[in-house]
Amino acid sequence: MAEVVLIFGSTTDNTEMLSEHVVAGLERRGALVTVKNVTEASVDELADYDAIVFGCPTYGEGDLQDDFVDFHEAMDGMSLEGEKAAVFGPGDSEGYPDSFCKAVDILEETLKRCGAEIVAEGFKVDGEVEPAFEDAEAWGLKVAKLMQK
Ligand SMILES: Cc1cc2nc3c(=O)[nH]c(=O)nc-3n(C[C@H](O)[C@H](O)[C@H](O)COP(=O)(O)O)c2cc1C
Hints:
By secondary structure, this protein is of the alpha/beta class. Helix content is 35%, strand content 23%.
């Protein structure tokens, strides 16, 4: 059974709410999921899991959510060879058309540089997250399937 760590950052709770649904999808496929707020996570533990899922909203003009900044810096440069990974996050294309969900792209790029395999396209949620709960669960299920390959 795949052991997955889902690490999220969330200032106004949208990513945290999405995380619950992504977890439900992962668990439907039998994954053993550990969920952590990035404020309680350390990069050193990433290697303890078969797969990594990050949930991060975009702030500023295309920046990672504040709590993710130090974690991201610590991760950049480490080896995550053999790890499978996927990233999701909410954003707002109306308010920030030029930097919509940029945090998802940033984290994917860094994971790839570290040697991790991105198994599924990043899941980007535009605007209100409630209507996307079902899609979040479906994405989690898809990610869990792809992580088993
Ligand atoms: C000050 C500020 C800056 C933002 N910048 C961006 C941005 O550059 N790109 C984007 O897609 N969304 C941006 N957003 C929208 C947030 O990513 C969105 O509200 C998200 O759902 C917040 O997630 P959270 O509740 O988990 O913190 C911004 C929101 C605020 C308040």
